[in-house]
Amino acid sequence: MFASSLKINSKSALIHFTVGVIFVLYFSVSYFLLWWEFKPLKVSVIEPLISAVVMTICCYLIFSSMKFYNPSKGQYFKIIGFCLVLTIISLGVSIFTLYQFFDTPSIAHYYQKLPYKFIINFLLLACIMIINIFWNVQEEAIENDRRKLESERLVREAELYNLRQQLQPHFLFNSLNSIIALIGAKPELAKKMTFQLSDFLRGTMRKDDKQLIPLLDEIKHLELYLEIEKVRFGHRLQTSFDYDDEVLQAKVPCMIIQPLMENAIKHGLYNIIGNVDIITEISLENNMLTIEITNPYDTDQFYNKKGTGFGLSSIQRRLFLIYSRTDLLSIRKTENQFSAIIKIPQHD
């Protein structure tokens, strides 16, 4: 609201300044030409003053009318006609007013100079009209660019929101199925898992309106997710984090790590018998935050032949929408280990 008000006030001030300059220049030139023609006789200031005031009023009429009308390409003849009408009006008003102050010889002299005044007034009003049209066109182009950027931003945010929401049902259904399975055999664990799921979803909803959050908040949210998964898988799931405290204030897109962790759990625990250790390494160097999650996997299992899957592709899409880069997600495979690496630029 303040920026819009400032813009309007600045434009109004510029209009007043422009009209003021036109008044001074028109009066000065008119008076100088009269003085040059009649010197050493004394020249009255009334005639140039009346002409300057009339032209000033015509300029204000142009600025006022062009606030509500911007001609298209096929309507420029209307602009020429409008300038001709204003020119005739300006000369007519000037002649009518001069009849109240000057004698017949002075008015006859004015009629002698009338063709020149007509040309000068027409050219001046046409210039004012053209400047105003270009001004309006530029403002319209700026406004269209602003609306385009705003529209693109809304579309990008909607797609980001949609990508995030698609990640939730899969995890939610798995958690609810696990709770149902635990209700009969281990009701306390089912109760604990229900509370953990509630805390996790509550934290997710709180972050819906935040694009970037501190890494510390992301890790806390990830720990809630891991606690739920550990209830599901018991002692088989082991996780470890390796990072320095200095990286905790780095900014990351909210819930960017969870799909990586979910992917690691899926390909690590579902296909391997025994305990599984998932390692998360985080480092910050040259304003680039690197997050690497490593899990064991069996190359002979079916799950590992399905490609990167929706989780990784959604992360890559989110990173592109936020940072406009396609090189921020990569994977690395060794004989029995799978690593997913994401890089998050840290802008000053």
UniProtKB/TrEMBL annotation:
The keyword Transmembrane helix applies. This is Histidine kinase. It comes from Sphingobacterium alimentarium. GO terms for molecular function: phosphorelay sensor kinase activity. Residues 158-237 form the Signal transduction histidine kinase internal region domain. The chain crosses the membrane at residues 12-33, 45-64, 76-98, 118-137. Keywords: Kinase, Membrane, Transferase, Transmembrane, Transmembrane helix. InterPro entries: Bact_2-comp_sensor_kinase (IPR050640), HATPase_C_sf (IPR036890), Sig_transdc_His_kin_internal (IPR010559). One of its GO terms (cellular component) is membrane. The keyword Repressor does not apply. Coiled coil: none annotated. It comes from the Bacteria.
